[in-house]
């Protein structure tokens, strides 16, 4: 099932994205990964109510486009998941 995203705000240095129908687990991980990017000033998620859709807000510095920062962070998370999967499969065959 594909994630459904809704762009709430986009400027040269800020993006706000709503993750429709998602929990906050992935958005938390994405925000934490974004903080590792030196071009990201602020990355946080908020959820108005326990069962509402989470929102990710990202502010960048130094001309870093916020959507590119989010895309790069998502790719890094995907890579980490792939590495974990390979290690788990290796454990199963050991």
UniProtKB/TrEMBL annotation:
Alphabetized UniProt keyword annotations: Cytoplasm, DNA-directed RNA polymerase, Nucleotidyltransferase, Transcription, Transferase
GO cellular component: cytoplasm; DNA-directed RNA polymerase complex
One protein family per Pfam: RNA_pol_L_2
EC number: 2.7.7.6
GO BP annotation list: DNA-templated transcription
Catalytic activity: RNA(n) + a ribonucleoside 5'-triphosphate = RNA(n+1) + diphosphate
InterPro entries, alphabetized: RBP11-like, RBP11-like_dimer, Rpo11-like
Coiled-coil annotated spans: none
Keyword Metal-binding (UniProt): no
Enzyme class: transferase
CDD domains, per the entry: RNAP_L (cd06927)
GO molecular function: DNA-directed RNA polymerase activity; protein dimerization activity
UniProt superkingdom: Archaea
Nucleotide-binding listed as a keyword: no
DNA-directed RNA polymerase RBP11-like dimerisation domain location: 15-86
Places the protein is found: Cytoplasm
Annotated NCBIfam families: PRK01146.2-3
Oligomeric form and interacting partners: Part of the RNA polymerase complex.
Similarity comment: family membership: Belongs to the archaeal Rpo11/eukaryotic RPB11/RPC19 RNA polymerase subunit family.
Protein function: DNA-dependent RNA polymerase (RNAP) catalyzes the transcription of DNA into RNA using the four ribonucleoside triphosphates as substrates.
Full protein name: DNA-directed RNA polymerase subunit Rpo11
Gene (name only): rpo11
